[in-house]
Amino acid sequence: MVWSRMTPGGRALAVLLPLLSVGGAVLTALLVVAGPFIGATIGANLPIVRFLAASVITFLITVPVAFLLIYMEMKIIALMNLRIGPDRIGPGGAVMSVVHGLKVLKKEDFTPPSVDVPVFTLAPVVVYLASFMTVMVIPFAPDLTSVGLEFGLLYFFAIGGLGVVGLMMAGWSSFNKYSLLGGIRAAAQSISYEIPLTLSVVGIIILTGTLSLPKIVEAQSGSLLDWFIFRQPLAAIIFFIAITAEANRTPFDNTEADQEIVAGFATEYSGMRFGFFFFAEYVNVFIVSALFSAVFLGGSNAPISLPFSPEIVVDLSGLGLLLPIAAGIAPLLGTLAIGLPIYAISARIKAWQALLAGFLIFGALSTAAIGFWAWAMLPPVADLVWFLLKTFTLIFIFVWMRATLPRARIDQLMGFAWKWLLPASLLNLFVTAAAVLLTA
Amino acid sequence: MTTPLTKPSLDDPRIAIPAASEWYEPAPTAQTERQAEFLNLRDGEMFVNMGPQHPSTHGVLRIVVKVNGEQVVDLDPVLGYLHRGVEKLCENADYHQAICYTDPLEYVASLFCEAAPVAAFEKLMDVEVPRRAQYIRVLTMELNRIASHTLFQGWMALDLGGITPILWSFIERDEIVDMLAALTGQKLLYNYYRIGGVNGDLNHEFMSRLGNWMSRAAAQIDSNLGLMNENEIFVRRTRGLGTLDAATALRMGVTGPNLRATGVPFDLRRDHPYLVYPELEFNVPTRDEGDSLARYMVRIDEIRESIRIIDQVLHEMPDGPVMAKLPRLIRPRPGRAFGAVEGPRGAYGVYAISDGTDQPFRMRIHDPSFVHLQLVGPLTRGNLIADTMAVMASLDPVMGGVDK
User: Which of A64, B118, B190, B398 has its CA 20 to 30 A from that of A143?
Assistant: First the structure.
């Protein structure tokens, strides 16, 4: 029989191709027949559809963000340790964190006997859900927010505090003393640091008169000096220290201090459940950095306004049918135009190498050109670029701190929150309120 | 009817899982008064077992910690997971073989573990070591001391949660280990000292590596220290922690940097001189505080003194043979001898008894780590769990020597 002589790839094709063609035909027919009806339904329920799409996109964004952060952390700490770091999988080891994720996915998901099974199972979900739900209010650009809540900041603190419930659940249900200590530490630490964290931004809420994150960003839209890091420097310092503790980062990573309590709340977890904790940690780093850049660093506002505003108007509608033809031919021509001189320049370069180089250079050039055009002509793109630049600078600082600092002891940590940060944030609040009253 | 073949799983109802209460071994019955006190749990206290496989117990040490919340109420180190019976092995080996059995005891500074039995055997044999061999021994031992202390510095940081210093300090240690490997042929367990001298003269690769390293060693080690000595978190976590007073230290038999951190300037190199140490100039660094930070700082100062000693040794090393003339089979006259050296962790001694055969009748090895490990309990009592690690790291025990 033909089937027995086919390779696995051939078998896959033989099964998938008919399935795909039949499925595609059915889908096309469905769209043709029921298309207007589906369109009308979507049009009538636009807010719900938008919410669902935003949720799915936000959820999908968290995974690559976590991958990127894990890779950043591995590579930056390696550089600071005078190591090479990951370099085997992908260019410069860039796919390493994805492989880590896959490894975690295929490991055995083991539930130790005598744990509290429902709580044990739900804990990673709660932790991941909390960090993913806070991503939804982050104002990436003026109109680029999943859910534009009026009380976004309050929502952020409320849902962000939910994560510690998950950590407590994990610590309590694991039937392990290390986990228990880690969970209790997480609870104590989060409760202590949530108070200065929240109080430090009350000054900004007084100044702007709003809890909405896009409006706080908008309030900083003047020059560089309108950013709240310059108008509320004390609050910025308190806020930064408090988010470090909230995200459980060094020097406040007592919840999973591996030298003391092995892995803290995650000691008994394996497989993807541990992966959820791991991902949530990095998503947390991203969201606290994003929040700091939104609240204190002007969010999506550019730090400098360029003296010229490039206007690149590309009108492709006049080309008509030529447009797809040009789009098909241009890469070929561009590849040849760049590859031929490379081929001619040295006899040692083979034809395929020259073509590959030409293709890559053309790709890079055209991507840069399109990127520049988008940056110049589409405001959300430029805003997003500035926002991500600020966020990733902060993430770099977090990674830098992890490579440099030892861990604070739990009593020093709590004492610092209650004895220094809390009075300082109250002082900041009173001074801001007094200034607003006096100037009003 | 056959049962289907399935993957074994704990979810399988046929596998009986005992209730949690049945897992525990029956509580040990107290043999001594101290054990009875330790096993008695008051309200709110629990035991936390750390090790023998724990990230920060420096090898296979197991500590049973009695905690009340985060506070350590009591602490009991459980030893013996690395016991190999080295003393007994040495009794069944001839005098040359005994040296390589003692080698892996303190594996991060194994030249000192060779130097002590070699010193004892030389006293038994009444043999004079050639002066060049003495200088080479001092040179290699001080290098090994630096290697051990730089590693200690990294460990200390790692146990306090900093991850970079250990990799930076491993750069220095790797360089020293590589140059000793060029000299002795091995990287960890050198087996270089012989009764009556050393195995082979200094070679070109060792000297060129040493010259390169000495030209930058002091500056490099100082620059590595900036990451810890000026770090507020590190200083706050170690200052005033695990304070040991001189009287207790002397009563417990503490030696080495841990004793000098309490203000007692006791150093075997100066107080019971051996080899060519009396001819060399060096200070014995001490601190008065006796806390973890002082123990750390004393070791850092010792690195600088060791570099100074190496410098003098390189200038004054004479020419000549590196091995005394001895018969191949060694049969010392019946008698007993004690040889001790100042190791990086303290006085490392070997007490050897000869009965006139070619094998030692008895070899007693005194390891300072074993003594220092007694202090972990008294010093951490009343502190927090995290402090256990800081205190233990600052005492710098090596489990190979403790369990023997």
Answer: A64
